[in-house]
Amino acid sequence: MSSPRPLAAASVALVAALALASCASTPAEAEPESADAAAETLTFTWDRNIAGEDEEPVYEETTVEVPRNPEKIVAFEMASVDTIGALGGEVAGAPLESVPEYLQDNLAADAFNAGTLFEADLIEIEAQQPDLIIIGGRSSGLYEELSQIAPTIDLGIEGTYLGTLERNTTFFGELLGAQDEAEQALGELEAGIDEAKAATADAGNGLAVMVSGGELKAMSPAPTEGGSAAVRGGLIYDVFGVEPAIEDIASATHGDPISFEFLLEHDPATLWVVDRDAATGSAEEGTAAAQVLDNDIVHKTTAFQDDHIVYLDPTAWYIVYGGVETTQVMIDDVLQIAE
């Protein structure tokens, strides 16, 4: 397919369509003791999993007060690095090796390495004295340690992708004094998603597959109570309206790798492909998605014959899958089907 389209033109559409499902976490004004307190702080509430790593999730509503216009932000959650930069802010510290190339400009010129997505460099972070720390997804388990250093909030996926996107963008708009920019960004994304959904409706049914280590796994629409990984796997269906080629993908595959014969048997009109190894930097010779799918069986599928195999940006769809710029990357990826 051809290269991604440029960013969608500015839209004045309302952002209501982004709130497709309710979301427990909401940015809200603190109950101030004075007008000065209201001007200086903002509160954020979310449902925090307080259970152990191998235990059934137990959620506790958690509210944290954070300073408006924080001078030094540490972000372990890449979608937050994305949206902060999109709204004119910058990030002072992050797991630098995990920040994608297209988000590098969102880092301060002297940005420090805060650790990894799973393990924080507590000594360095404390030495830097941040005003706000943001976690989410892979880094959610760092809350207890990091909250001892500075106000810490979890901005990972909660509820639906679009609900979380609206929640977080609105919150950052209020936090950074960029409410107009946040509203404009959401309007542009709403218009872009609508355009992409129209394109997928014309393209017929589809199947999303993740390629890793030479094997294929079919991705499914997210269940109602799906966690972050389930939301990620269902993006092409749940956000962009692709009609699944199989009525119940999860039951049909049981989460196991699928064969090339499986693709031919169910023969989706469009094949949407995420190369996991490319996203994680673990690709080995001969395991790139395009190479794995270049075989005689796949060549017999409708998707191949109609040039409807779409390779999605692996970093956007697997590592970040959130934030203003990343959502636009996804929109451009999906719109390839209309070209």
Protein traits:
single chain, 339 residues, alpha/beta, Rossmann fold, four-stranded mixed sheet, three-stranded antiparallel sheet, 15 helices, 12 strands, 36% helix
Walk me through what this model shows.
The protein is of the alpha/beta class. Helix content is about 35%, strand content about 20%. Strands 10-9-11-12 form a four-stranded mixed beta sheet. A three-stranded antiparallel beta sheet has the order 1-2-3. Helix 5 runs antiparallel to helix 6 (about 180-205) and helix 6 runs parallel beside helix 15 (about 325-335).
Order of helices and strands: EHEEEHEEHEHEHHEEHHHHEHHHEHH
Question: Which blocks of ≥5 consecutive residues have pLDDT under 50?
Answer: 1-35
Helix content: 25-40%
Proportion of residues in β-strands = 15-25%
Q: Indicate the CATH topology of the largest domain.
A: Rossmann fold
Rounded mean pLDDT score: 89
Label the CATH architecture of the largest domain.
Answer: 3-Layer(aba) Sandwich
End-to-end separation: 8 Å
Apparent shape: globular
Task: Write down the CATH class of the largest domain.
Answer: Alpha Beta
- Tell me the total number of β-strands: 12
